[in-house]
């Protein structure tokens, strides 16, 4: 019996550890090496596996490439196979953010329609390392440094512990020819610059282990975040007053817990998590820790919060 190539085995093992045992699973597949290796492994180890490819309409020939991915999936035995065509027009953020928003909305819609229990995404260990570097550059704090979660709602990322090189090797070993997205090497995009220049420079300076170490750090920070968030959730309940949050309770909390309480409370008031920044939370925190009679804090969504008679309250 022929021995399974190491890269193929690594991808299959990662998927086998992650894939739900019961119910339909969808693979989000762009036609790149990462998602094709993921799809092939999911089809091998899963019992009910379908595939969705999203056509963003941002590149010439994108419809044809989506059709090619769908044809490959049908021939490989995936069911159902869907092509989701989306438009990024009018969506907030730059091209990357708009495409991501449209893509996740489309994947969620397909998953809901076909009653899928999970959608598998092909992000690798290298993607995670890039995400951490981008977060460092933005000063994103612990939430950003935690990188991409393994699980978020219906979405799973089985390959966060698998090197990008192994997905390419897995495709080659199985005779699968991936498509290389030119956006991945376009220096107009920050992630492309990290991928093509910043991370290779770190690898050259510090050794190849830097990629795995960055990704591992993200997992450790995510675990710490989860613990601190749980403590903050209890603290928020204790801080509720008649109309808002009691300053006397907030002021006695450690900084890391208090800012988490304020962040979660701002979202509870209706502030969008995507628009809520550290500056908003710092301004809220100043109402507690640096109070000198300042006026209301303006949060995303036309929300205003003021300190009134010892409480942080929403005001008109």
Automatic annotation (TrEMBL):
Keyword list, A-Z: ATP-binding, Cytoplasm, Ligase, Nucleotide-binding, tRNA processing
InterPro entries tied to this protein: Rossmann-like_a/b/a_fold, TilS/TtcA_N, tRNA_Ile_lys_synt, tRNA_Ile_lys_synt_N, tRNA_Ile_lys_synt_subst-bd
Main location: cytoplasm
Annotated transmembrane regions: none
UniProt keyword Cell division, yes or no: no
UniProt subcellular location: Cytoplasm
Catalysis performed (reactions): cytidine(34) in tRNA(Ile2) + L-lysine + ATP = lysidine(34) in tRNA(Ile2) + AMP + diphosphate + H(+)
Binding site for ATP: 30-35
tRNA(Ile)-lysidine/2-thiocytidine synthase N-terminal domain residues: 25-195
MF annotations from Gene Ontology: tRNA(Ile)-lysidine synthase activity
One Pfam family matching this protein: ATP_bind_3
PANTHER family per the UniProt record, alphabetical: TRNA(ILE)-LYSIDINE SYNTHASE-RELATED
This protein's domain notes: The N-terminal region contains the highly conserved SGGXDS motif, predicted to be a P-loop motif involved in ATP binding.
Protein function: Ligates lysine onto the cytidine present at position 34 of the AUA codon-specific tRNA(Ile) that contains the anticodon CAU, in an ATP-dependent manner. Cytidine is converted to lysidine, thus changing the amino acid specificity of the tRNA from methionine to isoleucine.
HAMAP family in the record: tRNA_Ile_lys_synt (MF_01161)
Family the entry assigns: Belongs to the tRNA(Ile)-lysidine synthase family.
Name of this protein: tRNA(Ile)-lysidine synthase
Native source organism of the sequence: Paractinoplanes globisporus
């Amino acid at each position: 019996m022929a021995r399974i190539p190491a890269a193929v085995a690594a991808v299959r093992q990662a998927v086998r550890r992650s894939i739900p045992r019961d119910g339909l699973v969808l693979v989000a597949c762009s036609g790149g090496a990462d998602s094709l290796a993921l799809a092939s492994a999911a089809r091998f180890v899963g019992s009910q596996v379908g595939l969705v490819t999203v056509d963003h309409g941002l590149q010439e020939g994108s419809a044809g490439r989506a059709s090619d991915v769908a044809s490959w999936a049908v021939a490989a035995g995936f069911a159902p196979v869907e092509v989701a065509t989306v438009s990024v027009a009018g969506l907030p953020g730059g091209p990357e953010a708009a495409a991501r928003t449209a893509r996740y909305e489309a994947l969620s819609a397909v998953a809901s329609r076909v009653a899928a229990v999970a959608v598998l995404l092909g992000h690798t260990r290298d993607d995670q390392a890039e995400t951490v570097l981008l977060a460092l550059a933005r000063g994103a704090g612990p939430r950003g440094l935690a990188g991409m979660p393994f699980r978020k709602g219906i979405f799973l990322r089985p390959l966060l512990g698998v090197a990008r090189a192994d997905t390419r090797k897995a495709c080659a070993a199985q005779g699968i020819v991936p498509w290389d997205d030119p956006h991945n090497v376009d220096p107009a995009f920050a992630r492309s610059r990290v991928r093509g220049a910043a991370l290779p420079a770190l690898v050259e300076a510090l050794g190849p282990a830097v990629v795995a170490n960055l990704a591992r750090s993200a997992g450790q920070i995510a675990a710490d975040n989860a613990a601190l968030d749980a403590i903050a959730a209890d603290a928020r309940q204790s801080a509720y007053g008649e109309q808002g949050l009691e300053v006397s309770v907030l002021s006695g909390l450690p900084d890391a817990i208090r800012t988490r309480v304020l962040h979660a409370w701002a979202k509870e008031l209706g502030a969008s998590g995507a628009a809520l920044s550290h500056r908003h939370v710092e301004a809220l925190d100043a109402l507690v820790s640096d109070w000198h009679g300042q006026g209301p804090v303006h949060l995303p969504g036309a929300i205003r919060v003021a300190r009134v008679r010892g409480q942080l309250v929403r005001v008109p």
